[in-house]
Amino acid sequence: MLYCGGPDQWAPKSHMEDIQEAKTAGSLPNNITLEYMDDLVHGFIVYPQMVGPAADFVCRSIASATVTKGQNHEEINALTSKL
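Above: the chain sequence. Below: its structure as C-alpha cells.
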C-alpha cells in the first residue's frame, strides 16, 4: 500500500501506522507492505513528475510478490517491462 504525503484526507499517514500496528499485533498478515512517500500527493496521476515514483512502487510491489511465489528474475523483468 502506497501512502502519500500530507495532509491527505483520504489516506492519512495515521492509517498506515494503524495497519502497521495491526500487522505487529498479528491481526493482519505480514504480506501487506506499506510505503510512505512524503513528496507524493494523492492525485499523483495528474502531475507528470509524480507518475514515475508511483510506477516504481508498483513495479517493486509486483517484483516482490512474484519472488515470493518463486518466479525467477527473467519472469519478473518480463512482467515489469510490460508496465
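The longest strand covers residues 2-4.
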